[in-house]
Amino acid sequence: MILFFGDEDAIMIRIALFVSLLVLLFAAAALGQSSTGPVNFQVSQDFQNRYASPAPGQGATGQTKKAVIGQGSISIDTGDPKNSFWTESTDLSGAGTIVNTDMLWDTSSKILYAFARTNLRCAHGKAIEGNVLIGIYGKKNILSKKPGSGWWVVQLAQNQCQAPLAGLYGCKFDTQGNNLACGRAELDPRINDMAIVEATRF
Question: Which domain holds residue 130?
Fold first, then answer.
């Protein structure tokens, strides 16, 4: 069967095709953009590589066994009081700022956690001091994540670094330390992991 289209039908078909093309282009552009959070922070490659040897470094102090790392709502409770815990001076971001950093190696989940109070920089340039909690997936981790990848999270008050709401903000990062999905975050106590609940762009 042969269909014949009038001028109006041909125009409508062309408009529909054009709109469909625009939708596809916008979708592709959205996928190509990575979100950014209110805080600019990137885990240094040297610290990220600690996943391969998650043990106290030279000069480490306070070595003990512990289940919890962090403070208040920016903390992880691994549920295992036999996990290794220690403190050492570390440059978390590679910016030359050495801070006392608590570290915990979860032997069951194979995740290395780090917690410190350090200098942070807002996405719009202002410097603040705040707490940061980092999780780096180790080899054969329980979540089957790529070893060396991970996440970081900070706690902000409303309007601090222009955060629209008070709460946790952070990013997931890949094995090269590149921040991927960023935004409002939450810590999942069931698997002791971090999830981005709302992507943001600053």
Answer: 39-199
Buried b (16+ CB within 10 A) or exposed e, 97-112: eeeebbbbbbeebbbb
| 66: phi then psi, degrees, rounded to nearest 5 | -160, 155
The answer to whether residues 79 and 10 belong to one domain is no
Q: Are residues 112 and 178 in the same domain?
A: yes
* 3-class state of residue 2 by DSSP: coil
> Is residue 165 over pLDDT 60?
yes
Phi-psi group of 183: left, alpha or beta (phi > 0 → left; psi -120 to 50 → alpha; rest → beta): left
pLDDT for 19 equals 44
Confidence at residue 11, expressed as pLDDT on a 0 to 100 scale: 58
Count of C-beta atoms within a 10 Å radius of residue 13: 11
What per-residue confidence (pLDDT) applies to 33? 42
The set of residues, in sequence order, having a beta carbon less than 8 Å from that of 120 and lying 6+ positions away, is 39, 40, 41, 127, 128, 129, 130, 132, 154, 161
